[in-house]
Amino acid sequence: MVIKKRSLLWDWTNTKNVPQQMDKINFDGPMHSVSNWNTWYPAELKNRAPFRPMVRLEAQLGGDDWQNILKSNQEIVHYFNEPERAGISAEHAADKWNKQMIPLRKEHGKKLVSPSCSNDGTGQAWIADFMHRVEGNPPDFLGLHYYGTKASEAIAFLDGMHKKFPKQKVFVSEIASISRDYNEVLHFTVDVSNWMDQQDWIAEYSWFGCMQHPADNFVSPAAQLMNEDGSFKDLMWKLMSDQPMHY
Description:
The chain has about 250 residues and is an alpha/beta fold. The chain is about 35% helix and about 15% strand. Helix 5 packs parallel to helix 6. The two termini are about 20 Å apart.
């Protein structure tokens, strides 16, 4: 039986430049859903898979973005993307959570993913503070990011965070190897994917990233899932079709 946990991180620039590539995504295998770090639905998805809208930062709690969230018929909503790097305190995030996200759950039936922080010490401290502050109205899922080079360390981090917050299944909303060596990237991706597929407490995971150009100098060009012309790299085809994955 196919384990459907993989979520496609589809950058907004793809909607602008290469929307036709979405037609080539195979949603009959392990690939299950789509996110684009935004509240708006990518029309090229054509209702072929669930979409995961995101209240990326505080700006998305108002205006057209918030209207998109209120009008969305999608089941799961992500809340805040690396807020600790955007100057948002856990206290402020918890206040907005209680005022806007909890009513969204109660009145619209949405399931909520916690803020997804980086895996460094600052990110871990921030999410621990946030989870303590929202104990009375906890998220349905714990959002996590992981970037590194060793599969064993990624697995230890994810397992450790689950042990800290065992009540929530996990959305690994961004993960990738930052090695510049493709062979190392491949081994990291294969090993961690196969492990995550076997953990019943991991609900979804998203490999970064499907876009024509690297987002910044931190992420690895060797881990990109799309070529500059919009065609998919071999690693993308593997993620769409291979389970278990292999080197």
